[in-house]
Amino acid sequence: MDKIDELLIRGVDKIYPSKEAFEKVLRSGKKISLYQGFDPSGIQLHIGHMIGLRKLSQFQQLGHRVIFLIGDFTGMIGDPSGKLSTRKALTKEQVLSNAKDYVNQVKKILDFNGKNPVEVKFNSKWLSKLTFADIIQLTSFFTAQQMIERDMFQERLKAGKEISLTEFLYPVMVAYDAAEMNVDLEIGGTDQTFNMIAGRKLIEHMRHKEKFVLTVPLLTDSSGRKIGKTEGNVIALTAAPNDFYGMVMSLPDDVIAKSFEFITDLPMNQVEQIKKDLKSSKNPMQYKKLLAFTLTKMLNNEEKAKKAQKEFERVFQKRLNPTAPFEKEILNGSYSITELIYYSGLTTSKSQAKRLIEEGAVELDGKRITDTNFKAILMKDKPLLLKVGRKFIKVLPN
After folding, report:
1. Are residues 95 and 187 located together in one domain of the fold?
2. At what angle do helices 256-263 and 50-61 cross, to 10 degrees?
């Protein structure tokens, strides 16, 4: 494949209105403007985001104008896509706090310097200035039927759950982003199709031009569950190399081939061979290690990837303790194993910690713990080595 073929085929779900129409524009030599929006509903971008980010990078390398849009205004409302209940609204302070490190995180993939730097924009710059009259005008381009027909809203109606009016307005605001920036293309996951198509309609009315939409597949396992959290931990782009490598090794086997295809540069003939080998029940370990090494190298460097692989083999294949586990200080005392995990920051809730214990994913000082009521005593000068899934932490008494 040449670069344009790879751009339009690899890691692409659909192109609206058609791949043929968009390819004609690209092969004409025209330089287009494009963007992807990221609502800062959390503080970390993870490997699931890499599919779209790598598409942005490919367009950037071909000389097109790329915009990295931070949805600091829309993030306060929350995207209803795929949600069976209304999101809890975030404050402006929460959103800005979540977004403060976004650019540093994506620097591992996008170039914000050089001859064709990626531009960073915040949608509060224009959305916060809209008057009520402006909003009424914008909503006139859409119908209530269009909104209510969304699958997720239909599911909520059947379940007797509420749909807020702000959720109806979310696609309108996202559509206005595209019109305000006057872009030629929007990139987003398949779960964003409705919102991006809304932008096509609005930009046609406001700018009298075509806006293309390129949807990228979501990184999911065979059951359809999104990949982005493994054993309760986001596989963040900025995770320490050893942790990142270990978390990739924890991915389900059925995600290996997809990950090679969607978020690495491994040639497609090699990806196809991996698919064949995995279908023939070949041991996936060698390919999972190759994936972990490849991604760790991409987001760090080869030296760190080699060290991470060596540490993984030392700890998980030779059953030795890590050379330099992270440390966490908590107060002296007696804790249930569930509390110890939660207070150590290895899970986001006690219920999550309980589930991991029951699944046999927890060890304390080398001993597997399966009793959620197990008591751990943290005493002066007696730190505890806690292992949860692929993560180690040394708990220090304070």
Report:
1. yes
2. 30
